[in-house]
Design a protein that fits this description.
Structural class: alpha/beta
Distance between the termini: 44 Å
Radius of gyration: 20 Å
Order of helices and strands: EHEHEHEEHEEEHHEHHHHHHH
Largest sheet: 9 strands, mixed
CATH superfamily of the largest domain: Spore Coat Polysaccharide Biosynthesis Protein SpsA, Chain A
Number of helices: 13
Shape: globular
Number of strands: 9
Number of domains: 2
Helix content: 40-55%
């Protein structure tokens, strides 16, 4: 039996209200080489029965794994264990894929199956589907990634600060993820940054397709990226942040990264640390401000040179500082970035 071209993992936790829209966007009749892996991560609502309904209606196209609750990372790890496709993508259960762009992506991936040197990463755009906003904002990579051609890290250009590749924009080669030993942290939120970061040193060949594939829904009050929710879960954000820093520091010690990849990963780690720092400043308590200082101290302990390099970009120079003036600057920058970028 021929393996699927693409495995799409849909992590679900109490997703009964919105998961149908996601799953339906993955089940085009002409996409028989797309397998949908629904991972029910210990839901207590009707998620399990909806998942089983799709598996019964679409045998061979939809598979379901039921597991005790382990968090987003556990669902991704389970999906990677069970995936049969040549390529691997995660689509969260409240998001969906745009059909025209999906068709173009599948044509690209099908052609890649016969390529002598496998494609490790296909990058596409994603769109912020912000609740209540009529105008939707697309995050694209036209400045950083030449379109429709094979790329290596030596041929990528500089990324804007709002332009980093996120889980929503990435389709990996499945065996590459397994070969690099990817294991996403479990029982934690905010692991999508880890998923978008750790495999990069193993990517040898990538391509950018300039299509708005992923529709990223934001705006629910209980959503993990809601500011108040993130502040309440700040220790999980910091935990993932430090795992990323440890990973990069470890790679730097063991091998020489291509210079442009080293710069990209350093700036990405800086950006995630900036998010952690600003959220702690937004929290504003003495304990939160102490955690911010402790975060930067621990980064310096993990990798003194990396800590120095993370302070060099303008955003790193601002967020690593303490004091009222620095904190006021962070608050202003945060509000401006919300307006410009449109995240939650």
């Amino acid at each position: 039996m021929t393996s699927p071209t693409l495995s799409v993992v849909v992590p679900c936790y109490n997703s009964e209200v919105y998961m149908r829209r996601c799953i339906e966007s993955l089940l085009r009749p002409d996409f028989g080489d797309v397998e949908v892996l629904i991972v029910n991560d210990g839901s207590s609502d009707g998620t399990a029965s909806i998942a089983d309904e799709y598996a019964e209606r679409r045998p061979g196209r939809v598979r379901v794994v039921h597991q005790p609750n382990g968090g987003h990372g556990a669902a991704i790890n389970t999906g990677l264990t069970h995936a049969r496709g040549e390529f691997f993508k995660v689509v969260d259960s409240d998001d969906w894929l745009e059909q025209g762009a999906f068709a173009r992506v599948m044509s690209e991936l099908r052609a890649e199956r016969a390529a002598p040197q496998p494609l490790d990463l296909l990058v596409t755009n994603f769109v912020y589907e912000k609740q209540g906003k009529r105008i939707k904002r697309s995050v694209h990579y036209r400045r950083a990634l030449p379109r429709n051609r094979d790329l290596s890290w030596d041929t990528v250009r500089r990324f804007w600060i709002w332009q980093y590749m996120l889980m929503h924009s990435m389709i990996y080669r499945t065996e590459m993820l397994r070969d690099c030993g990817l294991h996403v942290p479990e029982r934690s939120f905010y692991v999508d940054n880890y998923f978008a970061f750790v495999p990069l040193a193993h990517v040898r060949r990538l391509r950018y397709l300039d299509v708005d594939l992923y529709r990223y829904f934001i705006g629910r009050a209980d959503q993990s990226v809601n500011e108040s929710v993130m502040i309440g879960r700040i220790d999980q954000q910091i935990g993932v942040n430090l795992l990323m820093v440890r990973h990069l520091a470890g790679i730097r010690e063991s091998e020489a990264l291509p210079p442009k990849l080293d710069r990209y990963m350093t700036r990405y780690a800086t950006l995630v640390t900036a998010v952690s720092s600003v959220l702690l400043v937004r929290h504003g308590t003495r304990e939160a401000l102490s955690k911010k200082s402790e975060l930067w101290r621990r980064i310096d302990e993990i990798g003194p040179v990396l800590g120095h390099d993370m302070r060099r970009p303008p955003i790193g120079m601002v967020v690593c500082r303490s004091g009222r003036l620095a904190e006021a600057g962070m608050r202003i920058g945060y509000h401006l970035s919300k307006i410009l970028v449109g995240y939650n």
